[in-house]
Automatic annotation (TrEMBL):
Gene3D superfamilies, per database record: Copper homeostasis (CutC) domain
SUPFAM superfamilies: CutC-like
Pfam families reported for this sequence: CutC (PF03932)
The species this protein was found in: Streptomyces longisporoflavus
Protein name (database record): Copper homeostasis protein cutC homolog
Protein family per UniProt: Belongs to the CutC family.
Amino acid sequence: MSKRAVLEVIALDAEDAVAAQAGGADRLELVTDMAADGLTPSRETFAEIRAAVDISLRVMLRLADGFAAGDVDTLVRRARELRSEGADEFVLGFLDETGGPDLAAVEALAGAVDGCRWTFHRAIDRTPDRDALRKQLGDFPGLDTYLTAGSATGVDEGLPTLLAEAARSGEPGYEQQILVGGGLRLDHVPRLRAAGVDGFHIGGASRPDGWSAPVCADAVARWRAAVDA
């Protein structure tokens, strides 16, 4: 039997979380403020969502739009507060002034989450050398996933990169799961699945009425069927 693909859905609150789980999501990415492309939610929001659903939750660690870490001490404090609330999976990803991974910030946060699993998010799509970034980050404890569209502009342009990286699965720097998100459409899924990609991330696609409306369970169910096909 083939491995079930992971379907991750962005959730802003408990209502989103309940609908996403009902539609078949395996995991939620918890954020606030999508106008800033997703920032760290409060510990109260995390607690409400954790009480509402029993699927995996990955919590964003980011204070401002973009890929600069900013105030790392504040990020570390927020991470520890969320850990004390029960959070055990995270999302983070920062670049330095050269466009390479901000290793100091990543090290500080990897230490703060104390071995928990985490995703390096779409900062990988903004670096000038994806291969170098992967190899620089490869030994960080807890890193098990890259959220990527293969390109800063989205999956349409990034598809060749995603397929090439999927073909390198298991090589040094390529042991982590590829979680595809960013301009992802249902028609992309068959080709990605055929290449061995088994992680899919949706945000706006789960909200047919836009970000001002909640997650739609039926929309998530359509994605569940597509990634399982």
